[in-house]
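Quick one: structure tokens for this chain, please?
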Amino acid sequence: MSRADAADEFASAIRAALTSEKCGTHENRSGVPPAKTAAELSGLAAALLLLGLRPEASFGEAKAAYKNQAARNHPDKVAHMAPEFRELAERRMRELNAAYDQIRAFYKRRH
């Protein structure tokens, strides 16, 4: 993948995140409560949601999802871009690392 492709992918992800944040501030007129975000959930469920996994996911699935997300969101991929992009990528990696640490600790306690 070229750097231009990586930049386009990262910019699209940021646009999507910003759009979802903006949409979340509008009043929900349907009467149905909005789906909870990872920040609103606690514990293992939030960590799994952050990695895009179901609650019944195995540790192997969690490990693969973490590696995939880490490869896509690593700060080195945007090192050549503006500092704001690097800060966003660093924050995302901190979130991913914390989620994976929590999942790993949970599965370690189970076995």
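The chain has a mean pLDDT of 79.
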